User: What shape does this take?
Amino acid sequence: MFQCFARNLAGEIQTNTYLAVTSIAPNITAGPADSAVIDGMSVILHCETSGAPRPAITWQKGERVLASGSVQLPRFTLLESGSLLVSPAHLYDAGTYTCMASNSRGIDEAAADLVVWARTRITKPPADQSVIKGTKAVMSCGVTHDPSVSVRYVWEKSGSVVDVSTSPRLRLDPDGTLHLSQTWSGDIGTYTCRVTSVGGNDSRSAHLRVRQLPHAPEIPGAALSQVEKRAINLTWAQAFDGNSPLIRYILEVSENNAPWTVLLANIEPESTGVTVGGLIPARSYQFRLCAVNDVGRGQFSKETDRLSLPEEPPSAPPQTVIASGRTNQSIMIQWQPPPESHQNGPLQGYIIRYCLSGLPVDCQMKNITRPDQTNLLLEELIIWTNYEIEVAAYNRAGRGTYSHKVTEWTLQGVPTVSPGNVQAEPFNSTTVRLTWTAPSPQFINGINQGYKLLAWEAGHEEDVTMVTVRPNFQDSVHVGYVTGLKKFTEYYTSVLCFTTPGDGPRSPPQRLRTHEDTPGAVGHLSFTEILDTSLKVSWKDPNEKNGVLTGYRISWEEFNRTNTRVTHYLPNLTQEYRVTGLTALTTYTIQVAGMTSKGQGQLSSSTISSGVPPEMPGPPTNIAISNIGPRSVALQFKPGYDGKTSISRWQVEAQIGIIGENEEWVMVHQLPNEPDARSLEVLDLNPYTSYRFRMRQVNIVGTSPPSQPSRKIQTLQAPPDISPYNVTLRTASESSLWLRWVPLPEWEYNGDQELVGYRVQYSRAPSKGGVLSHVISDRLEKEFTIEDLEEWTEYEVRVQAINGMGSGPWSQPVHGRTRESVPSCGPSNVSALATTSSSILVRWGDVPQTDHNGLILGYKVVYKEKGSDSVPQYLEVEGNTSHSVQLSGLGKYVLYEIQVLAFTRIGDGRSSKPSILERTLDDVPGPPVGILFPEVRTGSVRLIWQPPAQPNGIILAYQITHRRNSSNSNAATVDVLSPSERQYTASGLKPEAVYVFRLTAQTRKGWGEAAEALVVTTEKRARPQPASRPTVPQEDVQARSVMLSWEPGSDGLSPVRYYTVQYRELPDGNWTVHSASVNHEASSYIVDSLKPFTSYRFRVKATNDIGDSEYSQESEATTTLQDAPDKAPTILSVTPHTTTSVLVRWEPPAEEQINGVLLGFRVHYRELQYDRLRSFTVRTINSPASNWAELTAPYSVRNLSESSLTQYELDNLSKHKRYEIRLSVYNAVGEGPTSTPQEVFVGEAVPAAPPQTVTIQSSTATQLDVTWDPPPLDAQNGDIQGYKIYFWEFQLQNETERLRTMFLPELGVKIKNLTGYTTYMISVAAFNAAGDGPRSPPTRGRTQQAAPSRPSFIHFSELTTTSVNMSWGEPRQANGIIEGYRLVYEPCTPVDGVSKIVTVDVKGSTPLWMKIKDLADGVTYNFRIRAKTLTYGPEVEANITTGPGEGAPGPPGEPFISRYGTALTLHWTSGDPGRAPITRYVIEARPSDEGLWDILIKDIPKEVTSYTLNLDMLREGVTYDFRVIGVNDYGYGSPSAPSPSISAQKVSPFYEEWWFLVVIALVGLIFILLLVFVLIIRGQSKKYTKNADSVSSYPHLGSHSTSLPLSHGEMVRLDEGRFPALELNNRRLSVKNSFCRKNGIYTRSPPRPSPGSLHYSDEDVSTKYNDLIPAENSSLTEKPSEISDSQGSDSEYEVDQNRGGQQKTHSFVNHYISDPTYYNSWRRQQKGVSRPPAYGYAQPELLHTPPWPSRTPSSPPPSRDTLHPCPHYPPCCPGTSPHPPSPRASRGSIAKSSRVCHPRGCCSEGRVNSTGALGRMEEGPIVNMTVLAAPHHSWNGRESPVL
Assistant: This one.
């Protein structure tokens, strides 16, 4: 546009016009210039153009287009001006860049070279260091830079440049490392390494601290204290701490020029003075101090002047003053000098002061001038006198205090004179009386202890009888008696007085003789030459003559007839005498006695029968027991036959504990010389023990047989007599002890075993606090764990047995110590003091003694930042005397929570409470974080930030510096902001320029590290492009970390602020952020905290001011290396295995904690010595090397290379030692940590093998005898204390297992009270003091059979007026093989004057049911049933009353019958329904000739009042009555009245009539003559048509065999199902009654016979048939099948069991009751057989059915819906081959089929249905059975009942 301006004074005017240049060739007016840029920074290559139309700019590098209007590669941005922005620039971006401008007129281009220098960075910055003075400090400054760029290193110290050329101690390496040797305090400061180059500048700082030993305290001074006696005040000036905080001062003392010793080792570092008290007078002291910091102990200060304390008199008396009487005139006094610390100066001697005790006399003194003399004998004292004695020491300052008075007597003397006026005289035949006077007390010389009266026979002076008499101080004359002397014997007597030292002189001996007395019994009384009228008596002199024998007295008398006594006196030389004039065969009592002047002596008596020599006595009888006590009983008895002489001794024998016929009898009591005894007391019995007694009597011939045993008694209870023995105590855990003992044997219970138990009493040893106890109620318990004890504490324990009567004695006490544990409390007085910005000094006190719980080995300081979720850090301090530590490397100006804990060998204790809070000192801050540029314009930007992550103090200000990011721009803009500012706007910037912003924070320590950020002043910004796929070089893969590397993507003209790194654990882990603040300049990153031996993938994303990039592609899968395992195995148990080995069981750590491939386990073990532990003290700071290793031997290690192990036997250990065991795992890298230690005592182990050769012998039905051999000797592991016998019923171990414990090493046991005929499994285990060994393999044994228990129940159902279904349950304890049941039933009251008792034996264990019929209506019956094995068991009984119950329906209306063809229809009306609606009807039927009612049809719907049945259900030609019964929920109701009788005779069809046959015959004659002949034959046989209808189609049966198809009536069961029927009919039925047919008509039965008595006998049982066993009171009679109609009789028939091949006999019970398959079979319908209709006009067709299938006893009874046709049976008549029947009945069945041969020659089968009369019945015999009637009743002409 062109403008033209014209102006003058009047104004101005303008005009313009446009000039449009539409086509100008492009021209690069300012092309790119060669540039250089630093790697990672941005560069702009300018390209200004002109042209029309406006040229399109394209930038190329070689042939590659980098940016144009349509193409833009990452990191290359085409600016609006046409310039190219490369951000960031990388090394590979170096090259020639071409700017091409093009339009329609042409192309112009310009090129320039870009050089990219690698950024110069400090990659190994210097680190803060603390070095000890004189050592070397190395400050590294590792740099990475472009090879073409030279780098210059400059080190500054506190802002000043360090010139290494000025000192030989300084050296600067080419790589920038600064070495400072021989460091000293002048080297302390902050060192900054600055690196300058054209590739960028960088700087890093670190602080150097030079530590040294603290200086010696200054100006130490010492002065006597004016306030405190025996104290010295010390002062000093504070020492220089050596640039490390002082920990404490150590004060040493030299006493009397002795070597220096530590007096105080922990003086607070802030102190400048201390008072030393408790010093000893008269001693000189000199002191010196030193300071201690973490470098060590500094030099000692100068010694103080030596000070001496003034001398003082001894402040303590002599020690241990002991006085003892040496003689009766001297006392020895002994002492020890006063403690040296209380002598207060050199001792000069001792003073002994003594005087008579209690008397007001002056004391005497003894002065000892030798200080080394410590005893003195005081002599010339008074005999037997009490003295008081004191001792004092003295020095130059004076005499000290006297000791406590000791009193001592001079020794007693013996009396010097004998008693006076001694008189002796005989008192009686065994006693002498003496009198005397006491000697004067002055001659006794001691305490008169009494007098000794002496008597001895002449010539036997050594055998003195002595009687001691206590002194009598009241009487002047003393009297004493010497008793127990021999009668009529000469003695010497004397008296003496005695004191404690001995006897005084005896009085002169006096001679005397004891009085004469009657003699003792003559010796050896015997009888010889025994004749009818005389015998010879012999004897010997009495053993005790007791005088001068004057003769003998002999007398005899008839036994118990004193009036016949004859007495003779014989001279003293006669010792035999013939007694004459006796009566023959008469018992005499003969007595002989010696005679002295004092009279007749003791009689010797015996009885004898004249003419009969003495015999063996008989046993006593009528033993009775009374006065039963815990340990005694009284027995009364009647003597037995005396053997014609007197009884000299009674003997009592007993069975103890186990009473039985075969048990042992033991002698328990004897009573001699009591021939007339009728009772005696048996003593020394065991309390609460079962006894049974028997007696024997003894005469001169021998001992009688035993009497009959008495009744069984049990003595009363008493407390236990003994304590448990073998009591041992072992450590169980930190708070428990394991107490073991051997329980009392059963015979020591002394009471009810259910009340026997044990009481454990325990207390701390020595006694501290109360005594606790615990009661254990299990009598068999042999161990107890005492819980809730104090850790590491010794206890005293004892145990006693208790029962219901009281407690027994205590056992001897045993001692044990609980195991060491961790401290239960933290140290006290914990404090913390910040010393620098990164260190804190922590101090603490001791753990309370009661909370040590073991030996404290050291302490751990636990610290973490307050409020942080990070894991606390630990610093361990070894030794239990160090109580401070310096925490270093802490965060600056960070508040820490600090706790201290103590640890023992077991582990860490509780931390101290509460936590101590302490903040480190402040320092310069770290860089601000989170710098973003949310707003960027072409001329201004706004940035925001967050405070530094490490503020290191209180932020006081922020400083922002920004400048253009170019190598030639040094001008920067600086602004300082307030600490609350969080954003800043910089304006006046050039567009499309790159600027660098530096942000730093300030604390009071100065400005901190700066944070830098780049920004491009352009509005064309975007999210960054994703970085390249991360790579992980294998050399950078470690066990827990890897290094990722990636190439950044384009930053979208907004520099990347940070990167986010994620990782994912393979195969199924989720992505997890590892760090979201990776430096924006980084292209690599170390990902740490990974799991060893685990596969990972990684990805990276970048974030700039605009947002996040997409995540990079996932890296390749990387697997970290293996590392040592992190966790130890968990030890499950350590148990003694043998006496020198233990079995260790463990659970390995989880697979992810092994950190590699598990190679095996290591067992660490060592012996513990608790005695050393108790006395051990961790040494002071002077001996820091002391540690736990000094306490015990080092660990021994066993390598287990099998990784699948979970247990190991650690052998070759020492017996009776305690071991500590730890366990660890190892992999290819190394070994993991060891487990928590487990302690075990080696030396006791359970038996390693079970008892051998366990055998079982069945003794009785309730007892098994078990024997075994002990385990092998090498597997016993100690003394076997007993055995445990486990026994249980076979396959019921969990439910029935019981235990019998034998506490003595017996090798057999009788297990009693078992269940009969039961298989038991028995296993035996041995046990010793360590516990139970393994069980032996179970051995099987079975008890013998016994009577079964009662059947479990009786159940009744289907109760009608005349029948009931009865079932019962099996016995709960069969106790053997059930052979059958016996059922007995009878009416509770006589029926019609007759009481019938029916007994039925059911053979076999099944069936368990029966149907009973022929009961009387309204009568209550008693049913009893019992089972049988070898014998019958107890009964179970129940009563049932026949007839309808209360609430049952009433009778329906009388039924009437309509007949049509072959069907009958019954009609009735409903009756009273009772208390519940009628649910169904039942039809009963019976033959009109007084047959039994039985159910014909059941389950007729309740709505029906008529029912039609087919005549095929009934037996043709028989007349029947019918009645109806209603049923409701209360049961069967009353039956209706019987219907009119109706015959079951069928009406012949029309084609059987004669006129039809005539017509047929006439028609046949018309057609053919031959046909006429045939029809005539047919007409003659029409009367046989009915036979033809029922002919069986089975060809092998022949024309005479009949097998009728079963009709509906036979398909209906006559009972409820599953019940066999037992009928009691009131008449006999012969074979021809219902089964034989004459002339086509079924005949009635003949006249009934008179009733006969019943006799039941077991002889009628046929074992060939598995059927009923008749009872003892029943007999079964049956008619043999061979008898013809005319030959039938009621005679009894004997069953021949040996008739092989002949027809099996058939009894009624066999046929009718035994087999439920028979009468159930008519309800069983086989496949292919249709069920005939209940009624209809069509006659059923013949059925062709196969034989019956076999049926086992366990099969259920057939249902009523099943048809069971008759089986095939072969002909039994002559000319036919025999064919045995199918074996279908097994044990337990109640019925059998039988076959009958009829006289007509036909062969038929016989089978009786449940009624015996109803329906079409197969031919066969009927068994007659009579029922026993009470003998006092008559049958009144009624027929005999038939079973």
